[in-house]
Amino acid sequence: xxxxxxxxxxxxxxxxxxxxxxxxxxxxxxxxxxxxxxxxxxxxxxxxxxxxxxxxxxxxxxxxxxxxxxxxxxxxxxxxxxxxxxxxxxxxxxxxxxxxxxxxxx
Length: 106
Prior knowledge:
Elements: H1 2-22, H2 29-49, H3 55-76, H4 84-103
Helix pairs in contact: 1-2, 1-3, 3-4
């Protein structure tokens, strides 16, 4: 169950990152509210996952899901540049997540 919480927390991190971008510096109400609500929910799920998972594993996976997910949203939704170097960087993050997952005892 901890991994489900962690993945859900990571997905919520992607949502709050995107909605924060859409809030234009918290000057737009609806995206600002979405940002705050999803941040709180993401942190809550992360804390539940940390009950069973090691800190390093949980935090690394959570931030990795958020980082790669935000990159993908930036490319596919916002039309940001997907240069070869950025794609390689995202792939390295994913490989680190896989290695972290494989090394976890939980």
